[in-house]
Each structure stands twice: as C-alpha cells, then as structure tokens.
Amino acid sequence: MLVATTNDLPGHRIVRHIGMVRGVTVRSRNVISDAIGGVQSMIGGRVGAYVKLAEAARQEAYDELVAHARDMGANAILAMRYDANEIMPGVTEVLAYGTAVVVEPA
To answer: What are the extents of the domains in the chain?
Structure first.
C-alpha cells in the first residue's frame, strides 16, 4: 500500500477514485504510564511514557486505515492525515484518514 500526505503520487496516475477511508483507535493511559509520565514531567524534557503511548495509538490507527483501504480495493491512500481528540480525561481517540485510490505507474 502506497501512502502519501500529498494529493498526488509522483510517478503514478490515479485510475480509480474509491473515496474516504479511515482507521480509528481509542486508547487510555494507565496508572504505571501516569506515574512514570508524572516523574518525567517534573524533571522536564521528553516524556517517553506518553510518547510511546501516542506512537502505539498512531500505529494502530494507521494499520486500521491501510486495512480499510485494502478491503475497498485500493492500492494507495492520498492526503493521509491524523487527528486526535480527548474523549474524557485520560482517554484519547486517534483517527487516521485519507482518500483511497487505485494508481498505476505513469
């Protein structure tokens, strides 16, 4: 699966436009991450416990996005983006979305 944040894919032409696809996950922090994150935030700098959690959530949403596009018959996703919203304190939704297309080499 080719995935790009751009609206086109250099070296390829779009032969079929399928439509919007998405992948979503909802993740929550846990007591251990909060404790480690709290200590790291007092020290300052990068809060590794939360970075790890954010990266895991983005990867899960991305994997769901690719699976959705593949199920619809796409071989590429254009204009891919992430969005995140806090549903409640400590619970975050991460959405990956884009436009599913079929491309072929130009």
So the answer is: 2-27+58-105
pLDDT tens digit sequence for 3-62 = 999 999 999 999 999 999 999 999 886 555 555 555 555 566 666 777 888 899 999 999
CA distance 33 to 18: 40
pTM: 0.83
CB 22 within 8 A of CB 63: no
User: Which residues does 46 contact at the CB level (< 8 Å), separation at least 6?
Assistant: 40
Q: According to CATH, what is the number of the domain 2-27+58-105?
A: 3.30.110.70
